[in-house]
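Write out the 3D structure for:
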Amino acid sequence: MTDHIPEQPLNLDAAQRGDGPFVWRFERYHRITHAAVIVSFFLLVITGLPLRFSHAFWAGPLMSLLGGVKMAGILHRTGAVITFLYFSAHLFYVVRKLVRSPDPMKILWGPDSLVPQPRDIVDFWHQTRWYFGRGPRPRFGRWSYMEKFDYFAVFWGVAIIGGSGLLLWFPEFFSHFLPGWVFNVATVVHSDEALLAAGFIFTIHFFHVHLRPEKFPLDAVMFTGRATRSYMEEEHPGIMEEVERHASEAPSPHQIPDTPAPPPTRAASLTAAALGFIALAVGLSLIGMILWAVILY
């Protein structure tokens, strides 16, 4: 009878690097919301690009692959509906959390807040110096300045891209009380802001989350919800005191941030890696298509 050999962490995932027990980083709610963001964003970008760059050689084949103009429109609006649903659900989540909190200001302006604070400017400067070997890496707390930027970028996107999209989706309704030139402006704003969002996500966001040397080739912490202690000490040393406070607790399947977590199964790790690599491949392909259309046409 052979001894049982424990499953080894998947080394492709930066969140599983190093030693130490696993710690919950994200709640189930955060992971579900992030999945909705991924699905809706890719739907919107893939179906929108053939319209923006209809002159490019890849526009026609991509539109055919989507099932034609009519089906692309349906998929685009489906992505929009998913966006409005997860955004509304998140607003409800935030309001509910504020109402139930004994100290709402701690959520809005505490060390664990997602609201940008003066420290984030200092961290940005120190991070820039660190990139060029001119100083130590900043000690991020629960959220880095880049994570906060990513978070509020969704608010901007839903307001600007989503708002202009609604105007173009229901022009008959809005034309009852808006002048015609507003729809021309909405067309330009919707297209340009969407292109800006796609460019940011597929370059800056991908680099910061996955393609930095210490993250390469993938950081699947949002997919599995957990990371090793070594990862947390390196990426978010400012919350290690809270992690230490729960260190003596037994690993639990309940996804409570900072508490011990069971290691992800190999199946879960492989699934997370597959989803992550697919998203990376599609995103980088899309940015390549955008650059081709912008530079060569």
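Residues 69-100 form the longest helix (32 residues).
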